[in-house]
């Protein structure tokens, strides 16, 4: 027995819209990589620490816990995914969020934690 899913014309229009709005496969892979990068808890904590502005590794370690080596490794992953950037100031390297869209997504996720719908 076939499942009826509405009018054929409506169905075709919705498929057309879905296909028109679908990014290319390469772009979808980029999106997935960024979601993966921010989904790891220690990287998410780093981004939340950087929400207030740029910090050096030592201050990030103070804010998120862990050790400098682990934080540096996570920062490299975030940097490789173009989510954070760095700049040198004297002997220190300062890190900041390079993609505010990511922070908007994180803010929405924080708001969603309180959503009971």
**Structural class of the helix and strand makeup?**
mainly alpha
Radius of gyration: 20 Å
User: What overall form do the CA principal axes indicate?
Assistant: elongated
Strand content: 5-15%
Q: How many helices in DSSP terms?
A: 6
| End-to-end separation | 34 Å
Strand sequence of the main sheet, in spatial order? 1-3-2
Q: Report the mean per-residue pLDDT as an integer.
A: 91
Number of strands: 3
Helix coverage percent? 55-70%
Poorly predicted segments: none
Largest sheet: 3 strands, antiparallel
Please trace the helix and strand order, writing H or E for each element. HHHEHHEEH
Short structural summary:
With 117 residues, this protein is mainly alpha-helical. Helix content is 62%, strand content 12%. The chain starts with 7 loop residues before the first helix and ends in a 5-residue tail after the last helix.
């Amino acid at each position: 027995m076939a499942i009826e899913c509405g009018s054929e014309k409506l169905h075709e229009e919705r498929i057309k819209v879905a296909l028109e709005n679908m990014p290319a496969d390469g772009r979808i892979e980029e999106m997935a990589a960024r979601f993966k990068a921010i989904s790891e808890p220690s990287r998410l904590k780093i981004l939340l620490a950087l929400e207030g502005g740029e910090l050096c590794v030592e201050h990030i370690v103070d804010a998120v816990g862990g050790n400098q080596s682990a934080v540096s490794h996570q920062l490299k992953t975030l940097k490789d995914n173009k989510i954070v950037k760095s700049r040198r100031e004297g002997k220190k390297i300062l890190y900041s969020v390079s993609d505010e869209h990511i922070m908007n997504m994180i803010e929405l996720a924080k708001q969603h934690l309180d959503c009971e719908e």
